[in-house]
Amino acid sequence: MSHISESFIGDVHRKVLSGGERKRCSIGVELISDPSVLLLGEPTSGLDSFKAQSICALLHRLAEKEGKTVVSTIHSPSSEAFFFFDRLILMCDGNIVYQGDAKASVDYFKSIERPVPQFANPADFFMKLLSINYPKQAKDNETVEYLSSKYR
Fold first, then answer.
1. Cα(22)–Cα(127) distance, rounded to whole angstroms?
2. I need a surface site. Which of 7, 40, 62, 94 has the fewest CB within 10 A?
3. Between β-strands 37-41 and 69-73, what pairing exists: parallel, antiparallel or unpaired?
4. What is the pTM of this model?
5. pLDDT digits (tens, 9 = 90+) for 25-69
6. Residue 26: how many CA atoms within 13 Å on its side-chain side?
7. Nearest Cα to 53, choosing from 74, 30, 29?
8. Contact 92, 144 (CB under 8 A)
9. Which residue segments constitute the domains of the chain, with CATH numbers given?
């Protein structure tokens, strides 16, 4: 973002930075105070897959090299971005169905007879598996019960 380092961010009436540039700028503002914990809501939303992966790589580096705790919600990460995650919490209808090492999640779901298909993005598979339609149907209740009972 060095090419826009002297630009104004803009306001409600005048957009200077793109949505992705504003998103990355807001993450930069958070990093200025050198916090030990970063809480980020959807830091990759609105970014193309390359920039989203770059943000995930940056956050992973901050955690690994600088010892920062990074907690984030990320909707539909690419498979490349997914593998930058260290720990993962997956929920279904308010129930935790997986909490642990992100890389072990694929093996865990295989062990409970819900294997991630070969060549599939694990995050996409988990989102599809854990999605519940409301009002809930009997099948949805069975899915929630099965997944949450396996995790206990």
1. 27
2. 94
3. parallel
4. 0.79
5. 888 888 999 999 999 988 988 888 888 898 999 999 999 999 999
6. 14
7. 74
8. yes
9. 1-85 (3.40.50.300), 93-152 (no CATH)
